[in-house]
UniProtKB/TrEMBL annotation:
Origin superkingdom: Bacteria
TM spans (from-to): 20-38, 58-77, 105-129, 135-155, 162-182, 226-249
Taxonomic lineage of the native organism: Bacteria, Bacillati, Bacillota, Clostridia, Thermoanaerobacterales
Species of provenance: Aceticella autotrophica
NCBIfam families found in the cross-reference section: lanti_perm_MutE (TIGR03732)
The UniProt record lists the keyword Transmembrane: yes
Keywords associated with the record: Membrane, Transmembrane, Transmembrane helix
Protein name: Lantibiotic immunity ABC transporter MutE/EpiE family permease subunit
């Protein structure tokens, strides 16, 4: 498996997927920073210095990048594989299709982790420049890694969609996830919608509603008990989705 992961990792060298790791966090911070200067002064005075930056940066990240970024990522992975022969190499080597599939998911997870690290660094630098003091280290790291962990189940799901029907279906699924995730995140049934998990768990960490509005004290969305539940469900779902899609991929390649 280690050799498979190393092989998959090398495929990303000098590709747009690698550039996406750096460009995506910068793009979302460029969106978040101007918001501070567009907000009315009366609105800003009720916020803690870092709350607006964290709320906007992480909120945009969970609402847009989580569904659409992973959808695009999966589409790019499948497009590259199609150009390379569409897994015909499996017919020439004694390699388990399920192992190849699991390796792809693992490498995609590693790259989204690296993207999260870049996002965290960019947020810290942006905050030091615009706020300059009392850095909320715990909230910054908790928010970033919570989004990453809860987005992992989308990787096998989106990769399956891209492999099954191509880029259009992967992007369409991402758009569907964006809409339903934002719609269900503040509702009681958020736990049944994987796309809503990053948004819902982010609320008690940053104190911001999935729609980007700061939460009032006592708001139910500030309940932090959802965080361990959401992370546990995300890890279990990742294993289940990986297992089921690996079985599907194995059958497809055997055909």
């Amino acid at each position: 498996m280690i050799n498979i992961i190393q092989s998959e990792y090398l495929k990303y060298k000098r590709t747009f997927k690698r550039k996406l790791i750096l460009l995506a966090p910068l793009f979302f911070i460029l969106i978040a920073l101007p918001t501070k200067f567009l907000m009315p002064p009366d609105f800003l005075k009720h916020l803690k210095p870092w709350q607006l930056l964290l709320g906007n940066g992480y909120n945009w990240w969970s609402v847009l990048f989580t569904p659409m970024g992973i959808a695009l990522f999966a589409a790019l992975v499948q497009s590259q594989e199609k150009k390379a022969g569409n897994y015909r190499g499996l017919l020439l080597h004694n390699i388990s299709p399920s192992a190849i599939w699991t390796g792809k998911i693992a490498v995609m997870a590693i790259h989204t982790f690296l993207t999260t690290l870049v996002l965290i660094v960019v947020i810290i630098i942006s905050g030091v420049i615009t706020v300059g003091k009392d850095i909320p280290w715990l909230k910054i790291f908790a928010g970033g890694f919570t989004i990453w962990l809860t987005s992992l189940p989308l990787i096998p799901l989106q990769l399956w969609a891209a492999t099954w029907k191509g880029t259009a279906v992967s992007i369409a699924l991402g758009i569907f996830g964006l809409i339903i995730g934002a719609e269900e995140a503040p509702k009681p049934y958020w736990i049944y919608v994987p796309w809503s998990w990053p948004m819902r768990l982010l609320s008690p960490i940053t104190g911001v509603h999935p729609n980007g509005i700061p939460l009032s004290p006592g708001d139910p969305l500030l309940d932090s008990s959802v965080i361990p539940v959401g992370i546990a469900v995300s890890i279990i779902t990742l294993v289940v989705f990986t297992f089921l899609t690996a079985i599907w991929f194995n059958k497809e390649e055997v055909k």
